[in-house]
Amino acid sequence: MIIGLTGGIATGKSTASLILNEQGIPVIDADIIAREVVMPGKEAYEKIVAFFGDDVLLSDKTLNRAKLGEIIFNNSEKRLKLNEIVHPAVRSEMKKQAELHLSDGNPLVIMDIPLLFESKLTHMVDETWLIYTHPDIQLKRLMERDGYTEEQAVSRIKSQMPIDEKKELADVVIENNGTKEDLKQKLLRLLQEVKKTDFMK
Ligand SMILES: CC(C)(COP(=O)(O)OP(=O)(O)OC[C@H]1O[C@@H](n2cnc3c(N)ncnc32)[C@H](O)[C@@H]1O)[C@@H](O)C(=O)NCCC(=O)NCCS
Ligand SMILES: Nc1ncnc2c1ncn2[C@@H]1O[C@H](COP(=O)(O)OP(=O)(O)OP(=O)(O)O)[C@@H](O)[C@H]1O
After folding, report:
1. Which of 49, 130, 135, 157 could form a disulfide with 170, with the two C-beta atoms 3.0–4.6 Å apart?
2. What is the rounded radius of gyration, in angstroms, for the C-alpha atoms of the chain?
């Protein structure tokens, strides 16, 4: 069984993934893979440089992520272009890793995919779990974690489907408005439920 874990930016997907991984469940993180596929020399890296120019590179030729972020979170056409370059490589690597985990005998695999609904990737998973935080808390946590101004944080949040719309689409909604311990207890309860299903027998 593959669970697609999603949410909005900074709603707590990585925090939830870590808790699930501590329970021995393999987690495939789209953000990590999206970093790997844009390493110098990779096809996606070359396409990014060809489209965005050398301006989005640091002196060591790796991507200047802060700069590329400022561009794409403020320009939807350029964001779509970056997505078009990066997403296919991310998708195929995620599928490959999931197949490996399943063929190794893991009954349950988590795919942490921030843009699961935006990119219409629900066909890749059996069930969708949404890590939800109230939009005010989301904004506060994002500003605190990344040191963004309110304007920077809002531009990132607005680059995604509103979290309240995602709530309507998810199979399971996991509220993360309380403490991390509250989140952990909710996830452990959900795992118990999953373990009772046919998938895990
Ligand atoms: C623009 C980039 C270089 C900024 O890098 P940075 O290190 O600042 O952010 P990071 O990659 O850690 O992403 C943080 C969060 O931003 C959000 N986010 C990232 N990319 C996008 C996007 N294209 N559209 C909407 N939200 C996005 C996600 O919630 C993600 O969890 C980077 O996010 C990127 O390459 N994005 C395109 C690939 C992508 O869509 N990744 C998301 C999952 S596949
Ligand atoms: N229940 C909680 N209480 C307090 N802080 C929290 C809670 N859950 C998550 N956080 C904090 O909020 C921030 C965002 O969480 P996290 O990094 O897990 O989000 P994310 O959804 O993975 O973000 P991104 O979309 O950027 O990958 C982090 O600093 C994290 O430590």
Report:
1. 130
2. 17
